[in-house]
Amino acid sequence: LPVSQLHTKYQLLKANSLSVLNRPVKLVEASEKCLYVGQREVAVVAPGDNVNMVGSEDATTCHVVILRDVHTGVTGLAHLDNEEPNDFLTLEREVRDRKG
């Protein structure tokens, strides 16, 4: 499904995407208890991990995927540079299996 059709079919997705794009850039200091995920990396954190923020950058031709289990608070982020389904499925499995 092309992005143009995706946004037409799912208006809430379009609105949420635009709201993210319109946010100002936030400069992050190391003292903010952040976890940086680089290209080809995956990170999964849970409440109590002493991490306040998970992020990535420079995904010009990559995909940054974020999954969050709303019941446990476990959050996973992957910076993917290919279309391998197993990379996404690994992130999904790690988030599902991690205890919150």
Task: Using brief descriptors, characterize the structure shown.
alpha+beta; two-stranded parallel sheet
Fold blueprint:
Elements: H1 3-9, H2 11-21, E1 34-36, E2 42-45, E3 53-55, E4 63-68, E5 75-80, H3 85-97
Parallel strand pairs: 1-3
Antiparallel strand pairs: 2-5, 4-5
Helix pairs in contact: 1-2
Largest sheet, strands/sense/barrel: 3 strands, antiparallel
Shape: globular
Strand fraction equals 15-25%
Enumerate the strands of the largest sheet in spatial order, edge to edge or round the barrel.
Answer: 2-5-4
Compressed to H and E, one letter per element, the order equals: HHEEEEEH
Alpha-carbon distance between the termini? Answer: 34 Å
Helix- and strand-based class? alpha+beta
Low-pLDDT runs of 5+ residues are none
Q: Give the overall average pLDDT.
A: 90
Tell how many strands the DSSP assignment holds: 5
